Each structure stands twice: as structure tokens, then as C-alpha cells.
Amino acid sequence: MCACGSCSREFALLDVREHGVHAQGHPFHACSVPLSHLEMMVADLVPRRTVPVVLLDNGDDGLGDRAAGKLVDAGYSDLSVLEGGCAGWKTGGGELFSGVNVPSKAFGEYIEHRFQTPAIRPEELKAMLDRGEPVVVLDSRPYDEYHRMTIPQSTDVPGAELVYRVHDLVPDADALVVVNCAGRTRSIIGCQSLRNAGISNRVVALANGTMGWEIAGFACERGATRVAAPPSARGFAKAVVGADRVAERFRVEFVSGGIVRAWQQDTARTLFLLDVRTEEEFEAVRIAESRHAPGGQLVQATDEYIGVRNARVVLIDPTGTRSVLTASWLNQMGLNDVYVLKPEGDDGFSGFATERGRRQQARLGFSSWLTLPAGELRGMLGGDGVAVIDLSRSLSFRNGHVPGAWWGVRSRLDEAHAALPAVKRLVLTSPDGVLAHYAAPEAAKLWQSSSIRVLEGGNSGWLDAGLPFESGTDQITTTLDDMWYRPYEHAEDYERHARDYLTWEVGLLEQIKRDPVVGFRDYS
Asked: What is the rounded distance in angstroms from the CA atom of residue 41 to the CA atom of residue 364?
């Protein structure tokens, strides 16, 4: 089986090293599914248990074999471990890419080059805003990122929402429309989305986003709450015209509900039902078995939503606008078998079973371990022979954890066992406790003479009980490489990390030229 991505057969290439190790270098099409979080991620990324799965590790750490054992137990039947791991891939002439969401990031650079997507420098935009010129700044990121930091006077219009909502935001035909994100990709894709849809205003991307804005010496606004409203009837009519234009140009394919329901019964092909609307719309009513993948984020991080190459992908949005824009980008990225679901009935979902409320992430083989209430743990802290291991991401641990807790990684519990003094009672925790429940049987095999418990409700349960956190990374049991840190998440020297990140993004355009497995589509 080919693991390069150039064939048409379905397969998954899963990097089971920790996310931060994955970011140090991996093949272009590898999806990050760390062994420590495997059971909480793989069912959504690889839903069909008979699909061929290639597991990637360092080649000498046994992570691939350990992951294969867990997947066999969960019913996956076609598993391989890439010989030699990442080192073997490189030795065999394969290209290794640093960073995360590489296919999407490289695609953004390709699009800017292909369409000559125009950009505005921070200094020029700042001067225009200071002079009160007609400028509309649209932030194409999800609300949490926008709320953390954005360009002053901007409005939040995430990704695929841009074409859907823009017409009511830009009443002045002479206004300049500026699309920004944190760095480059979503600015470029957002700007080009509006251009492809035929908006009459001049549209530009903010060069290097909020990172470029701050590097230029300008302050970002924090705590902004300006969110674009759903479109008026007039705005929606214009959005439909733009979406129709995009569908024709980029050969977007549509599919009926009857065909999709037949595909749901096809055990020989993988099907991803991805709802590209807002979270509020998704939770109000959705097709059962669909997943939330807001359009802008799906294009920004395709490898976090679609783990099987050459699978069928059906995009859901009864308005038809956001799904069409998203499909146009996935087509250009080189994905095969991407379709937009034709809406049927009043809510667009006629003939399908529907669900409401928050969707729980699919989990494999979950079973509960004995728990310990937060109040009881509070009384035990500081006692002889009692230790707490927090299995959260290192950034979460740094920002706040149970006082005196150690930080560890589930796949490296042997290192935690070597680092901790002998304990009589060991309490495991994680953000909501789920990961700790998975880790408890593994800990019991290492700490055979200790009483193992899981903090009830995890760290959320601790906070819900009104108990205090402490911060820092004084007590760690392994290397701090479990995750990739965004530039603003580093404890110091933000500007250096931001510059390095932007240099990396721009450099991807040259790097993909060296890799024959990268194939974006041109719809000239």
C-alpha cells in the first residue's frame, strides 16, 4: 500500500508521536493522533474499522506497535507500522515538514501565489483607520481567537461565513475590505473567497495578520465582542449569487439526501458528514452522525477533521453558501469525492435522523476507574505517600493545576514512575477526567503496590468545587514536547516566535515543490 497520498485507494497515515514531536517533522499527509490520546481521536478521524491504516513513529520507540495493539483491540483490522518511522521516510527520500496543519498552511501559500491575492501592510491599514477612511476589517477566525486579540474596529466573521454575511457589513461600495487572521492562511483564503464570489469592493488580506500588526508596533484589541449577524434577505440573495459563481468555477458537485443515506450503509467506503455551519446552528439541529467542522476551520486544519485519504466527504449547510465555498477549497486542495448536500424539507434535513445538543466526541473502549471527590483529595494533599499526576496538555498544566501536582504524558507513564517518589496513593487527573480514566489501568501496572484513583470530574471538577489552582511547570516528569505552542502561547519572546512562524509559513511554498506527493488542483 502506498503511504504517499498519490493513489486513489483509501488509507490513513497516523503519526502516533506526541503533537509537539509531530511538529518537529513528518510526511506531508500524516495526521497527528498521539498515542496518549488515541482512543479519544481515532474514531472520528478514521471511522471505518477496515480502512488500511499506516502508523508512524520515530522508528525506534515502539509507539507504532503500541498503537497497533490498541487499535486491534478496538476492531481495526488492516494495520501497518511504517518501517523506520520518520527517519526511514527521510532515508527513503521522503520530505519531512515541520509545523502543524501543513497541508492547509502550504495550500494557503499556494493560493496567494496562484491568484496573486492582494495584501495590505499593517502600517498602511493603521494610517487609513486613523484617518477615518472607509475601511471594513473582518476577522476570519473563530470567536475565541478573535476575542483574545484582534485588529481594532474589526468584526468577527469566521472563514466560510464571510461570503454568507459580508453584504450587510459593507454598505459602502467604495469601502476597502480587509480580512485578517492571526498569521496568513485564513487571511489569504478569506480574502480570496470574497474575490472568487465576485464582491464588488476591493478586498485585501492583512499581511501577516495580528502577528504582523503587533510586530509593526501596534496594539491589538482584547476582549472584542463584535460578531457579524446572520444576513438579511438582501444580503443572503447576494451571497447565493456569489456561491453559485464559485460552484460553477470550481466544479462543486451536489448530492441528494437519498444518495447520502445509501452511502451511510456502504461498508466499503469511508464517509465524512461534516456540518460547516456555526456551533449554535449545529447544536440546534443536525443530521445524526454528522460532525461539526466550521468551514473556515476545516480548510485551515483539514488534517484535524479528515483522517482518511480518498474518502467521501459530504458538506452540510442548508443555506448552500458556506458548504459551496468550503467545497471549492477542498477541491483545489486536491481532495477527491467532495460533495455538497442538497437541502431537503423545511430544515434542510428531511429524510435524515436528527440530533440536538452538544455532540460527544467518539471514544473507543472507555471504561470508568474508581474516582476520588475533589474535597477528599484536598484533604489529602501534602500528606506522605500521596501524589497527583496531571495528564493535561502542558500548556493547560502551566496555566493552572491542582497544587503540588506533577505533569506527565500518558504514553510516557514509565518516565513518571521513575521520576516520582514511592507513593501509597496516586491520583490521576486531566481536563475532564476522561483521559485519566484511560490511563488508570496502565498506571496500575506500574504502581502495583499503590492505590490508584481518578479525580472525579478531572480538573473541571476541582474548579467546580471552588478549589484553587496553582500555575507553573516546576514538577514535570517528561520532556515538554507534548504539543505545538502558538507564538502567543510561549512564556516569553513572543515577537521572535511570531517572526519564526511567519517565516515558516512563507517557506512552505518552496518546500512543497520538492515533494512529489503534493498535488493541488488548478481550475484555470
From this structure: 9
Q: Are 18 and 58 in contact (CB under 8 A)?
A: no
DSSP-based helix, strand, coil % in the chain, nearest 5: 40, 15, 45
The phi-psi region of residue 237 (left if phi > 0; otherwise alpha if psi is between -120 and 50; otherwise beta) is: alpha
Q: How far apart are CA 335 and CA 303, in angstroms?
A: 12
Q: In what order do the strands lie in the sheet with 371-372?
A: 371-372, 451-455, 425-429, 386-390, 406-407
Scanning 313-362, the segments in alpha helix (DSSP H) are: 321-333
Residue type, 284: A
What is the CB neighbour count within 10 angstroms for residue 367? Answer: 8
Question: Which positions ≥6 away from 154 have C-beta within 8 Å?
Answer: 137, 138, 139, 146, 180, 221, 224, 226
Model pTM above 0.70 = yes
Contact 158, 225 (CB under 8 A): no
- Give the whole-angstrom CA distance, residue 26 versus residue 32: 9
Residue located via cell numbers 477566525: 141
129-182 tens-digit pLDDT: 999 999 999 999 999 999 999 999 999 999 999 999 999 999 888 999 999 999
Q: Where do the domains of the chain lie, and which CATH numbers do they carry?
A: 12-99 (3.40.250.10), 107-240 (3.40.250.10), 247-355 (3.40.250.10), 371-464 (3.40.250.10)
Structure confidence at residue 382 (pLDDT): 86
**Rg of the chain over all Cα atoms, to the nearest angstrom:** 24
